């Protein structure tokens, strides 16, 4: 049984990522990160030689498109506090199934604090290109994103998988957005469970792997 460590980021819903902690895993350290938590997880993977990394909706660089979305979120915050931030975020962070749900939106909004939102915005606005950290670990990597993620569209995840030094798998899940581990919890848990146990890389005839 390995050790699972979580890096939930600053905008995770109050439920967090604790539902991953009981999954069986191979020996070694297994790091599970959401959004900007990917950078902290990669640094730990580099320092401690993690066996695997699960990156959910990873954010490792800021480009002009992401900067424009951050500017809109900051404008919402400055105009109407966390409520304004949440209203702008509703269109960016949620997939089509969740965006219309007042219950899901209220649960996420409840976990926001002005201090936390400002810290997140400052971190994101100061982000450069941190993909180089992917070259610092040979841990196998699983990237999971929502196909309807308007904040960090699937090409961000493709970049992560392409930059990975070790083995990498990438999945996009339909009907989910940026908050994919909560919007598509069952599907994400199934993928992560197979990955942590090593099932995602079973050897096949001819030297291939699943």
Describe the structure.
- This protein is an alpha/beta fold and 210 residues long.
- The protein contains 7 helices and 5 strands.
- It has a 5-stranded parallel β-sheet with strand order 1-2-3-4-5, sandwiched between helices.
- Strand 4, helix 5 and strand 5 form a beta-alpha-beta unit.
- It is globular and about 50 Å long.
- The two termini are 22 Å apart.
Report the average pLDDT across residues: 91
Quaternary organisation of the protein chains: single chain
How many helical stretches? Answer: 7
Number of strands: 5
Distance between the termini: 22 Å
Low-confidence stretches: 203-210
Structural Rg: 17 Å
Order of helices and strands: EEHEHHHEHEHH
Find the structural class using helix and strand composition: alpha/beta
Gross morphology: globular
Quote the beta fraction: 5-15%
Helical percent range?
A: 40-55%
Task: Give the strand order of the largest sheet, numbering strands 1, 2, ... along the chain.
Answer: 1-2-3-4-5
- Major sheet: 5 strands, parallel
Write the layout of secondary structure elements.
Blueprint: E1 3-7, E2 29-34, H1 37-48, E3 52-56, H2 64-93, H3 102-110, H4 114-125, E4 140-146, H5 154-163, E5 168-173, H6 180-183, H7 185-196
Parallel strand pairs: 1-2, 2-3, 3-4, 4-5
Short description:
The protein is built from seven helices and five strands; from the N terminus they run ββαβαααβαβαα. By secondary structure, it is α/β, with parallel strands linked by helices.
């Amino acid at each position: 049984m390995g050790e699972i460590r979580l890096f939930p980021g600053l905008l995770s819903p109050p439920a967090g990522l604790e539902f991953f902690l009981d999954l069986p895993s191979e020996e070694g350290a297994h790091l599970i990160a959401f959004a900007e938590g990917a950078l902290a997880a990669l640094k730990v993977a580099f320092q401690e030689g993690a066996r695997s990394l699960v990156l959910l909706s990873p954010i490792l660089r800021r480009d002009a498109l992401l900067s424009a979305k951050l500017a809109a979120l900051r404008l919402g915050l400055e105009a109407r506090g966390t409520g304004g931030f949440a209203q702008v975020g509703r269109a960016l962070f949620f997939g089509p199934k969740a965006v219309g749900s007042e219950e899901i939106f209220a649960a996420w909004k409840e976990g926001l604090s002005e201090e936390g939102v400002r810290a997140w915005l400052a971190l994101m606005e100061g982000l450069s290109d941190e993909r180089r950290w992917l070259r610092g670990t040979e841990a196998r990597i699983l990237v999971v994103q929502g196909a309807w993620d308007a904040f960090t569209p699937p090409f961000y995840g493709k970049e992560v998988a392409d930059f990975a030094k070790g083995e990498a798998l990438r999945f996009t899940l339909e009907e989910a957005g940026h908050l994919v581990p909560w919007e598509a919890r069952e599907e994400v848990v199934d993928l992560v469970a197979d990955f942590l146990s090593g099932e995602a890389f079973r050897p096949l005839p001819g030297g291939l792997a699943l």
